[in-house]
Design goal:
Blueprint lengths: L8 E5 L2 H8 L6 E4 L4 E8 L6 E8 L5 H15 L3 E10 L10 E9 L3 E4 L2 E4 L2 E4 L2 H8 L26 E8 L9 H8 L3 E5 L2 H10 L5 E10 L10 H10 L1
Parallel strand pairs: 1-4, 1-5, 5-12, 6-10, 10-11
Antiparallel strand pairs: 2-3, 3-4, 5-11, 6-9, 6-12, 7-8
Helix pairs in contact: 1-6, 2-5
């Protein structure tokens, strides 16, 4: 990446499978090698218009908020984007209206691992940032569901007919460890009643945006691939990545 490059929208993924799902929706993406990583660029036209916007796809190559913060900070400095979108897969929080493959949109991003050790236990000290209100508003008022019928979305792993994935808005928590137990999520739900998901890159991304001089708009949209419990598996990851990329 060079200082004279200009990108309107940066799409950030943690894993290559998430990046590849996004690339299927871009027009002839150009592979650009840098000293640090490989990125992809593509120009997308607005529907029924010759105008459009330049998109850059940045794959972190791993999970974690430190990695996300560093990479997104560099992307902001080099590309000066107007929008940052974090997409891919996440653990969901079970609810009556949520199923695997649905999408979660983070209105608020909360860190749960900071705390104070006392004689009576750990005293949690939550950190919180928010997605950009305008992007949340646009996502809530998304005009149609044509994206859900895109043939690039693969078949559901359970073999059932494909329902339209629902989009859920609420609190997403972040940490530096993969959750695969039966205790953590209920404890977090007690503190955050609007909890819908958990993942590992949103806060680093949001913090890089918050600390930048240009402060681009930012939103996180991810597909639910598991319930962050003992039944955690890889079965739904490809499908969840495909639905989030389609949206």
């Amino acid at each position: 990446m060079h200082q004279d490059d200009s990108v309107d929208v940066v799409i950030v993924t943690a894993l290559e499978k998430e990046r590849d799902a996004v690339l299927r929706y871009l027009n002839s993406p150009q592979r650009v090698e840098t000293k640090n990583r490989v990125v992809y660029k593509s120009y997308l036209k607005h529907e029924n218009s010759e105008s459009g916007y330049q998109v850059g796809v940045l794959c972190l190559g791993g999970m974690g908020n430190v990695l996300a913060s560093s990479a997104v900070t560099q992307a902001i400095n080099d590309w000066n984007p107007a929008v940052i979108i974090l997409t891919g897969i996440a653990g969901g929080v079970q609810g009556s209206e949520r199923v695997l493959g649905d999408l979660i949109v983070a209105e608020q991003i909360v860190g749960y691992e900071l705390g104070k050790l006392t004689d009576v236990g750990t005293e949690s000290r939550f950190e919180a940032l928010r997605s950009t209100h305008l992007l949340i508003k646009k996502a809530r008022n998304f005009p149609d569901q044509k994206w859900a019928y895109d043939q690039r979305i693969i078949s559901r792993p359970d073999g059932t007919s494909r329902p339209i994935p629902k989009v859920h808005f609420g609190v997403v928590v972040f940490g530096e460890k993969v959750i695969a137990d039966t205790i953590t999520i209920p404890e977090l739900q007690h503190a955050w009643t609007q909890l819908i998901g958990v993942e590992m890159e949103s806060f680093g991304t949001a913090l890089a945006v918050y600390q930048s001089d240009s402060v681009p708009a930012m939103i996180m949209v991810k597909g639910i691939c598991d319930w962050a419990d003992l039944n955690k598996s890889y079965e739904w990851q490809e499908y969840a990545a495909a639905t989030s990329a389609a949206y």
